[in-house]
Amino acid sequence: MKNNQTYVWSFLGRLSHWLLVISFFASYITSFYEELLTLHVSFGIFVFGMFLKKIVWGLIGPKYARWSDFDFTLKNLKFYFTEKIENRYREIPAGHNPASSWFAFLVTWIGIFCCLSGFILYGIQEGNGLTSFLNKNYYSLMYIYDDIHIILVYILLAMIFFHISGVLVEQFYHKTNMVMAMVSGYKKAKGTDIKPRFCMVFFGSLYTFFVFILFFYVYFIPDNILIKSKFEKIDYKAMHKDFQFECSDCHNLIPPHLLPKDSWTELMSRQDNHYDEDLNLSKSLAKSIETFLVENSAEKSTREASFKLHEEIKDSKKFTITKTQYWINTHKNIPKEVFKSDKVESKSNCIACHKDFEVGILSDTNITYINNK
Ligand code: HEC
Ligand code: HEC
Q1: CATH number 1.20.950.20 given to 6-220
Q2: Structure pTM?
Q3: Sequence spans of domains, the chain
Q4: Taking residues 223-234, what's their average pLDDT?
Q5: Do 111 and 118 meet the contact criterion of CB atoms below 8 Å apart?
Q6: Exposed/middle/buried for 134, CB within 10 Å: 0-12, 13-18, 19+?
Q7: Which of 67, 264, 275, 357 could form a disulfide with 293 if both were Cys (CB 3.0 to 4.6 A apart)?
Q8: Which of 297-306, 341-350, 355-364 has the highest average model confidence (pLDDT)?
Q9: What sign results for the dihedral spanned by CA atoms 303, 304, 305, 310?
């Protein structure tokens, strides 16, 4: 202790704190862009790594970072707030006060569950990564997991808001210079300085390095096991030559798994007036294509788009994908001129923006559209 200051937060502890802040906000911002999904997931894994570190650091780290040093007694929590109001220049503890003890505990576990719900969602909705095996049986839970993930994120955001407010009150009202504590490691409080042991520093650094490597691995190595999709490219030509030939003449081939079977039957029954065109298919050819479409319809697929389009269209027999609410919502941020540009020409020209669309792939990371109006 010198000049009434105690060294409480080790370098690694402070580093993890700020890395957590950066990666959390980076994953939050990237979540708004479907095409940045891999980056979002990479940051999410980083956040998860930092939360896990917090738990382990709380078991083996320096004194004030240890869970055993935290104060969880409710009586002290009540006293903390009473004293806060009554005594502006009260003494603060070197380690966590009761309020920040509870905060750190809750934020860590809610953070862990938030990341886990994200990994599950990544598997059941997108069919990606280590949890992609869940897609097969649990794809219909995608809405629920999406909600859980989002609710947890907003709980975390609210907590961060309170945390920052609390720190600012400490800084400017109680004048405890709290902001600097997480920068320099020194806190205006009485206590014994921490002396992180060599093995703590060594393993802590190694772990942090490992989390960085993991981040770069996930983001930069194509098709790595943490992001790999369970959905393979589909060779429609090999599966049904006539479908591939007849249905890719005027527009890109539309994968059968995007529409429910009743919609396909309806579309084929109106082949003489297909958006003012006559498809002119012989009866047997039309029947054969229809059978193929029905056999591979949205009902048979566990993909996100299949599930959501099927949910919306169900028995209505509609077959214009671009008129569905789902399609309109997912494309609402794209300026109208883009669809009329030379490169795209029409809304129905899915392939202009969705790479590998004609082989049945509709993943977020395959969106090649760049705002080039
Ligand atoms: C003679 C030209 C032609 C052929 C051949 C053709 N289509 Fe179309 N199709 C159109 C036109 C025109 C539209 C309207 C959308 C557009 O402007 O591109 C359309 C739209 C569609 C849509 C709706 C796309 C959207 O915007 O949501 C589906 C689904 C579709 N066609 C399926 C098929 C299938 C299946 C076949 C093969 C049996 C087929 N089409 C063959 C001309 C054709
Ligand atoms: C002008 C480019 C463009 C065209 C044309 C286009 N899309 Fe998209 N699509 C996008 C973009 C960009 C997104 C991501 C939107 C976002 O950030 O939320 C997207 C998202 C989607 C999604 C949601 C993906 C997911 O996993 O959430 C589906 C499904 C989709 N498009 C289907 C289609 C289909 C089917 C067609 C053709 C009928 C089509 N799109 C035509 C640009 C386009």
Answers
A1: yes
A2: 0.92
A3: 6-220, 236-366
A4: 96
A5: no
A6: buried
A7: 264
A8: 297-306
A9: positive
